[in-house]
Specification:
- The structure holds two protein chains of two kinds.
- Chain A has seven helices and ten strands.
- In chain A, the strands form two sheets. In chain A, strands 6-7-8-3-9-10 form a six-stranded mixed β-sheet. In chain A, strands 2-1-4-5 form a four-stranded antiparallel β-sheet, covered by helices on one side.
- In chain A, a hairpin with a 2-residue loop joins strand 4 and strand 5.
- In chain A, helix 3 packs across helix 4, helix 3 packs parallel to helix 5 and helix 4 crosses helix 5.
- The radius of gyration of chain A is 17 Å and the shape is globular.
- By secondary structure, chain B is of the alpha+beta class.
- The model of chain B has no long low-confidence stretch (mean pLDDT 80).
- The chains are: A alpha/beta, B alpha+beta.
- The interface between A and B is large, with 42 and 38 residues.
Chain lengths: 227, 842
Amino acid sequence: MSPAPALSLTGLKKSVPGGRVLFEGLEFSAAPGEIVAIMGESGVGKSTLLNLIAGLDLPDVGRIEIGGAALGEMSDDARTTLRREKVGFVFQAFHILPHLTLAQNVALPLVLGRAATAEALKSAHDLLDAVGLGGRGGDYAAQLSGGEMQRVAIARALIHRPALILADEPTGNLDPETAAKVLDLFVEQARTHRAAAVIVTHSEKVAAVADRALVLSPNGLSLRHGR
Amino acid sequence: MAASAALRWMVWGEWRAHPARVLVAAAAIAIGVALGFAVYLVNRSALDEFERAVQTVSGAADLQVRAASAAGFDETLYPTLARIPGVRAASPVVELTARASPDGPPITLLGLDVFRAAQVTPSLAGVRQGPAGAGTTPFDAGQVFLSAAAMQASGAMVGGAIRLTAAGQAASFRVAGTLPAAAEGQRIAVADIADAQWRFGQLGRLQRIDLKLAAGSDARAVQDAVAAALPPDAAIETRQTQATRGDSLSRAYRVNLEMLAMVALLTGGFLVYSAQSLSVSRREAQFALLRVLGLSRRRLLGMIFAEGGLVGLIGGMAGVGLGLALAGLALRVLGGDLGGGYFQGAHARLVFAPGAAAVFLGLGLLASLAGAVVPALHAAKAKPAVALKSAGDGVDPRARPPLKPGLALLAAGGLAALSPPVGGLPLLGYAAIALILAGGIAVMPWLAMALLTPVRPRRPGPAAHLALGRLRGAPGQAAVALCGIVASVSLMVAMSVMVASFRGSVDEWLGQVLPADLYMRLPDIQTGGLDLAAQADLTAVEGVRRVTFRKMVGLRLAADRPEVVLQVASVDRADPARSMPLTGQTRAVPVGATPVWISEPMARLYRLKPGDALTLPLGGAARPVAVAGVWRDYAHQFGAVAMDSADYTRLTGDTLRTQASVDLAPGAAPGPIIAALRAALPPGMRDQADFTRSQALRAYALRVFDRSFAVTYALEAIAIGVGLAGVAATFSAQTFARAREFGMLRHIGALRRQIVGLLALEGALLGAVGGVAGLGLGAVMGQILIQVINPQSFNWTMDTRWPVGLLTTLFCALVAASAGTAVLSGRSALSAGAIRAVREDW
C-alpha cells in the first residue's frame, strides 16, 4: 500500500469576484519528498491555487487534503494550526522580521506552537548551520545579503518538519548564481526532511530541478515534464 | 517642473490614501492654535476693557495723585497742588466702594466738585434727565448720577431713589441723571464731593486729586514738583502706571494659561512628528525609488517639509477660526478673566487681533514643521539602494539608541529651571519644561531598551516572545509611539502633583488661618468700621468665649503695582507662629522698632527678608517698621503685611475694625449666637455684616480654588486628549505599516488571538514604559511647576504632595488604554487584509 500523499487536490473549482472561473475540475497530488513546480501565465491563478492549498482561501467546489486532513472541514483556527504544524512557506520577498535575530526568525513556527524557547532556538541554530549560516544566529536581517535572507527563510520553512513546503518564486529576488545555490539548498533540504514542495515559478531553471513541472491553465493542470 | 509634479503626486497620493491621519495631525495643530489664540483674545479683550474701565473712573486727567490707602489723605493737599506752576486745574475726588444692597455688586462711588471736574475730567460729568429736559448741571445735595450698569445693578431709575452703603454708613440719594461717558459694564455713581464726604464719614479726607496740566508746561517738571509736595500717604499715578498695574494684576495668570495652551500646541507638534515619522518610514521604498529615478536629496527633504507645512497651515487656519469662536464663547460663559477672578465687573467685548492671528498661525506652522524635521532628515539620509531592498521596513536592532542628545536637552532644561524669571515671568521655567519633555522623549528609545532588556519571562508565550523582540529590536519605532504617551502623561502627572500640592497646602493653610468658630466681616468697608464700643458690645454677647478684631487696609507702596494688604490683628509677640503660618526663621527687631510680618509674595515682590527695614504710609506719615518674619499667604497675591493691632492703633490712632473672629463658649450653638452678634452691631452695619462658620468658609475657599483652576483643568484635559489621539493614530499607522509582518505570521501559523495578544502586550508594554517615563518626567516637571513657576508667577510656595492613588490609577488606566487602543487600532491586522499583505509576492 502506497503512503498517503502529502498533498491531495480533488475536483477543485475557483472563480474570482465577477464570476470568471479561474480553473475547474483541478486534480493533483504530491508525495512526501516530491518537488513539484507550477508554471503558467500571469493572472492564470497560480497565487490563488497556493492560497487554497495554504488554507488561506477556500475553493468554490472540491477537496484539499494535507497529510490526509481535509481543510474544508476545518475552522479558521484549525486551518491555522495545521499550517503551523504541517506547512512551511518560502516567500519571494523573504519576510524576515528585522527586529528579531536570525535564530529567532527561524524559531518562529516552533515558538508560535508553544515549544520551549531554548529548544526552539537550538533547533534554529542547527538548521542555520545546515543552510550555511552556522554561527550567525545572533545576527539580524540588516546584516544579510538577499541570498542569505532566503537561506534563513528556507530554514524557517523547515524547522517544524512540515509535510508540505509552499514556495513562491523563491529565487525571484536573487542573482542567477545565488539563485542556483539557494535552489539547490531548497531541494536538498526538502528531500532530506521528506517534505513535499510546491513551487510557483516562471523560471525554467527552477522547473528543471523539480520532479514534476505542471502548467496551470483554465482547463486545469497539465504535465510539462516528469511522471 | 516635472520633479514638482512628481512630488505633488506623492503628497496628494499619500493624503488621498490616508486622509484620516492627515486630518488628525492637522486637528491637533488646530486645537493647539485655537486654545492659544482664544486665551490671547480673551486676555486682550479683558485688558482692553479693564483699561477702558480705569479710564472711565479716572476721567481724562493728565496726572493723578492717589491715596496710599483707602483711608485717603488730608484734603489740604488739594490747594497745595492746585497752586503748583504748570497745573492748570485740579479736581479733588472722594472714591469709595458702595453697594445698593448687601448682596448687590459693588459700585464705584465718586464724589466730585463739579466745577473742577468739568475742567479736568469732563467725561465724569453727569447728564441731568427729567421733565425739565436734559443737560449738564451742578450737583445738588442728595443727588447722584448713575452709569447704565449701575442702574441695571441697583434697579434704580432716573428720578427714583437709591440707598447706597459705603464706608460702613448708608445714605439715600435721588437719581438725577446718567453718566453717558461711562464704559459699558462699569458701575459708577457720581455725587457732590461735600455731600459724599459728609454722608460717608470722609470729612477732610480725599482718595485722589485729578490734575490737568497747563498747555506747553514741562510735564516731567510738573510731576517732580507734585511729587515733592506729596505726603507719605499719597503717590503720583500716570496712565502708564495705571496700565502697568492693570496688566500686572493678572499677568502671571494669563501667561500661565497661554503656556498651557502652548503645551497643547507642543503636543500637536509631537503628533505631527509621529504621523510624519510613520508615513516616511512606510514610504521609504517609494522615496528610494524617486531618488533612484533622479530626485535630489534636497527636493525630497523639501517635499516632506512641504507636507508638514501644509498640515500646519491647514491646522493653523482652522485653529484661528476655532480660536475666535472659542474666545467668544469663553467671554460669554467664563468672563474676561477666564474664572481667575481678576477683573470682576468688567464686561469684555471680543476684540479680533489680526497680528496675533498671524503669529498663532505661524506658531502652528512652526510646530508642524518642527515635527517634520527629524522624519525629513531621516528620509533624506537613507541610502536609496538599501531602502529599496528593505521595502520600507529597514530596522537595524544593532544600532544602539543614542543617549547624549537627550541628556544634553535634559541638562539644558535643568539649567533653565535654575534661572531667574525674565521680566517677572517664569519664561525660562516653561522653557525648562519644554526642554525636559523633549529630552525625555529623545532618551525614550534608550530607556525602552534599558527597561525591556532585563524582562525575561520564565516561559514566554508566542505573544510575549514577539512583543519583547519587537520592542527591544526596534526601540526607535516604539519611541515614536511613546512620544504622545510620554508628552500627555508627564503633563498630566506634573499638573496633578502641582494641583494636589497647591490644594493640600491651601487646605492646611486655611486650617491655620481659620482657627476660630465664626468669622464676621463688613465688606467694602476700608474706612470706618466697628469702634471700641461696638467691639465691646460684640465681646459681651452671651455664648461668646472670645472675639479677636481685625482690619484689612489696602496700601499702595508703588504706583505701578497693585495694593498690598495691611492685616491688622492681634499678634502673639512671644510666639508669632501661634498667630500666623510662619515660614522659616523669625528675627527679633531692634528695640523700639515696630515689628511686621510679611507674606511670601510681599517678600518676593519687594525683595524683603527678616531683619530688613520698610516704610509704610500710615496715619498720614511714613512709618518705619522692621520685618520680623515671613508667613505663608495664599489670599493676597500681591503681598500682605501683618501688624499687631496695638502697634497699628499707636501709629494711626485708628481703633476701628472691620473683621472679627469669634470663639464660642463650649456647647454654644452658632445659629442663635450669629443672630445675637448681628443684633449687637450698630444699626447701619447689621445688614452689611457677613457671618460665616469656619467650615463653610474653608469649603467656600476650596470651591473658589477649584473654580479658578477650571480653565487650567480644561486646557490640561484637551492637551491630554490630543496626546491620546496621537497614541491611537500612532498605533493605527504602525499596525498598518506592519501588515506584511502580521500577514507572514498568519501564513506560518499565528492564530488571530495570538496576534491580538501580541498587539495587546505590545500596547501594554509601551504603555508601561511610557507610564514609567511619564511619571518620572512628570515628577520633575511638577517640581518645576512647584518650585519655579508658581513662586515666580504668583510669589507663593507650597509643599509637595504626591497624589499616589491618582497616579497609580492613571498608570493602570494608561497601560489598559494603550493595550486596548493597540488592539482596536490593529483590528485591520486581524482581517483578511493582513494576509493579502504578503500576496504581492504570489
